[in-house]
Design the sequence.
């Protein structure tokens, strides 16, 4: 049975962030959203149809669990980023709306359910992501590879992007497992500049995430690596540009940059709304550094327009 509904075992908001090293200050008045932040309420027949398919197959999407502002657009076009290994994360990242708690055992039928859903939706490109599963020896890498394999078996010719965790020091084992069925794009997101890691990503390591990106690229050079950043958490544009330099130095070819939006009370608050002009500047700088596919804008997320980005790499190959 799905754990989608909140329960005492699933912590969100203030309950989730109460035990992180740097406490979240949620007593301030939130910043007013500027005119360029416009999020449509996800409604319509196609949105509801896809939600019904997902619930029938006991699947989750990061679109729903992380309160993504693009849910209506993506579901409306018949696409989704699938969240595997359950909807409970072993970490307490305060920017994220995915629930924290003790995960259930892996569902060994999930790869088959995922493949059936991908086929029913008629997808030719799919993004597979997951919660952090620090309780598993390989962080869930073998399960992710099984999902990739099942999707390809069900839909020959499908392209798959994996938006993977950082595997917390178990990158070598995780990469070995992932290489059993490598994706078409590998996307471990950095999310924040290094100065903000302890506040935004407790339990993660900036240098370790860069090493994971480089190690996967070296082990499987035919698969482009990709990463993403949130802005508006208190970083400077200079710090963002330094991260772009780091990513290119570690062989990353694809990039997403988007505005952080507070999902609910108790999560990190928005420190600043970055302007569209600043997003354009970062996109220009990224292309100057050699990124081959760049998506930079207020509502861009790690898997936003993933198919178009992957196509740009393929077309330029």
Sequence:
């Amino acid at each position: 049975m799905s754990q989608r509904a909140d329960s005492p075992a699933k912590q969100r908001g203030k309950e989730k962030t109460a035990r992180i090293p740097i406490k979240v200050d949620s007593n301030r008045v939130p910043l007013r959203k500027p005119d360029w932040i416009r999020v449509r309420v996800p409604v319509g027949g196609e949105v509801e149809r896809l939600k019904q398919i997902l619930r029938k197959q006991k699947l989750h999407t990061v679109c729903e669990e992380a309160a993504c502002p693009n849910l209506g657009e993506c579901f409306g076009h018949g696409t989704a980023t699938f969240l595997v290994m359950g909807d409970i994360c072993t970490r307490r990242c305060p920017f994220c709306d995915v629930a924290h708690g003790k995960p259930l055992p892996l569902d060994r039928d999930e790869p088959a359910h995922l493949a059936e859903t991908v086929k029913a939706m008629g997808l030719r490109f799919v993004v597979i992501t997951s919660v952090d599963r620090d309780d598993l020896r390989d962080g869930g890498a073998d399960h992710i590879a099984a999902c990739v394999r099942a999707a390809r078996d069900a839909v020959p010719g499908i392209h798959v992007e994996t938006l993977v965790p950082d595997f917390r020091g178990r990158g070598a084992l995780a990469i070995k497992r992932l290489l059993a069925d490598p994706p078409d794009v590998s996307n471990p997101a950095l999310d924040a500049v290094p100065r903000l890691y302890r506040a935004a990503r407790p339990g993660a390591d900036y240098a370790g995430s860069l090493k994971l990106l480089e190690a996967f690229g070296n082990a499987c050079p035919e698969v482009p690596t990709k990463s993403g950043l949130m802005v508006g958490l208190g970083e400077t544009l200079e710090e963002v540009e330094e991260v772009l330099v780091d990513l290119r130095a570690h062989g990353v070819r694809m990039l997403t940059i988007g505005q952080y939006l507070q999902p609910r009370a108790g999560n990190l608050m928005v420190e600043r709304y970055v302007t569209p002009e600043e997003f354009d500047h970062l996109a220009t700088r990224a292309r100057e550094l050699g990124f081959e596919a760049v998506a930079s804008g207020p509502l861009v997320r790690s898997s936003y327009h993933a198919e178009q980005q992957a196509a740009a790499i393929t077309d330029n190959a």
About this structure: Residues 141-154 form the longest helix (14 residues). The two ends are 44 Å apart (CA to CA). Residues 1-8 have pLDDT under 50 and may be disordered. The longest strand covers residues 125-130.
